[in-house]
Design brief:
This protein is about 45% helix and about 15% strand. The chain has about 400 residues and is an alpha/beta fold. α12 links the parallel β11 and β12.
Length: about 400
């Protein structure tokens, strides 16, 4: 059997679901650990479900100081690894499949001598990527992060008895010192958007984005032809970003749907929507907290304003929707720049995230694009997608059994 460790964030979990579904269809027993809030979506893949223990780290409100984030991941891995290790030992899986940020999977696999396959949902954090991220953040933020994060990180390392290094906490290539390296990394992204090369001894395969095979059907509660605004599970905490994007959409003469979840003031955004509708009687605006599936919402849009998370980026591209990228953190900024080079969207200029005029100018540019969707889809076909990802995991499982 295969035991799976997810990272409890939809942007990390969703690309893994088609892989789990493919493994289950192949007849392999799969047991997946996850946050309780994702039990239903995990079970829908056909995998069995086991809950993580409660940890103090709130994945819904992450700290984007990467030094403190490393401390949070290490602390969470202490609690989770201790709780699940006896269960995994009893299940005796042949292979562990884990998100690259699920540090506890690496600790359990190393302790029990079980080979691991990592899935990577973002760009790889190699030397070139890290340098680009540092340029995006700027020296002032880097210094602030180091000063405020150094003590929490030192405490987390001491509490864990230095079981891992900070680089291992992020699953960085070539960082394996205290943990056994993965047998393979399956990158759910295109090599064409990767910054630089990765050089270490781990086998690494870029398979491109993974998607479900089922066709997207069903009408929505509002007519097509709108700008969709969505800023992801982890980064949609800024109501000001939503408001600027909504006003920018209206300024270019299009209706707008804001998919904002529960972490912003939806009441205020609905008041904004009502005032915009009053000022633009021919247009409409909707604020939505939750939808059963995002695919139909993207399908009926003309363009998407999003945070350059990999899930949002590839879902928009799947339906051939150009995008305005409004990244939140440094890896999203690097990824947004690479996507812009592919010609499928435009990146909003730094510092103008709450400037509705800048958003309107960005949307004007996006709506004038003529992306070569066929070329992008050819790249994805060559990478192999879900079928290749499933095949690689099965291959690693066979090798583990020899």
């Amino acid at each position: 059997m295969i035991v799976v460790f997810t990272t409890p964030a939809m942007g990390h979990l969703k690309p893994m679901l088609p892989v789990l579904r493919g493994l289950c269809r192949s007849g392999i027993p799969v047991t997946c650990y996850g946050h309780l809030s994702f039990e239903g979506v995990i079970r829908s893949s056909g995998a069995g479900f086991l809950p993580y223990p409660e940890v103090s780290y709130d994945v819904e409100r992450p700290d984007f100081n990467l030094v403190r984030m490393a401390a949070d991941i290490i602390d969470a891995s202490d609690a989770i690894a201790d709780a699940v290790l006896p269960q995994v030992r009893a299940m005796a899986p042949r292979l562990i499949l884990q998100d690259s940020l699920a540090l506890w999977g690496g600790r359990v696999g190393t302790a029990l001598g079980i080979p691991r396959v990592h899935t990577v949902t973002t760009i790889l954090f190699n030397r070139e990527t890290v340098r680009a991220m540092c340029r995006e953040d700027g020296s002032a933020k880097l210094i602030r992060d180091a000063l405020s994060g150094a003590l929490p990180l030192a405490r987390a390392l001491a509490r864990s008895r230095f079981a891992v290094t900070p680089a291992e906490a992020f699953g960085l290539p070539g960082a394996w010192r205290r943990l056994a390296p993965p047998a393979m990394e399956v990158v759910l992204n295109l090599r064409e958007v990767q910054e630089g090369a990765v050089r270490d001894r781990v086998r690494r395969c870029f398979v491109g984005p993974t998607t479900d095979e089922a066709p997207v059907t069903g009408p929505l509660g509002f007519p097509p032809g709108y700008i969709l605004v969505t800023f992801g599970t982890l980064s949609n905490t800024s109501g000001a970003r939503f408001e600027a994007a909504m006003r920018g959409a209206m300024a270019v003469g299009l209706p707008v749907v804001a998919l904002c979840g529960g972490k912003v003031d939806q009441g205020h955004l609905r008041e904004v929507a009502a005032s915009m509708e009053a000022a633009h009687p021919a247009l409409w605006a909707r604020v939505v907290g939750r939808v059963p599936k995002i695919e139909p919402v993207i399908r009926d849009a003309v363009a998407v304003v999003h945070h350059a998370g990999t899930g949002s980026a590839w879902e928009a591209a799947r339906f051939r929707k150009p995008a305005l990228f409004v990244p939140t953190i440094a890896d999203q900024m690097v990824f947004a720049t690479r996507l812009e080079r592919l010609g499928i969207g435009r990146r909003l200029s730094r510092g103008s995230e709450t400037d509705e005029s800048a958003v309107a100018r960005g949307l004007d540019a996006v709506l004038s694009l003529h992306p070569d969707w066929e070329a992008l889809e050819s790249m994805q076909a060559r990478a192999g997608g879900t079928a290749r990802a499933v095949g690689l995991v099965l291959e690693a499982m066979r090798e583990a059994g020899r």
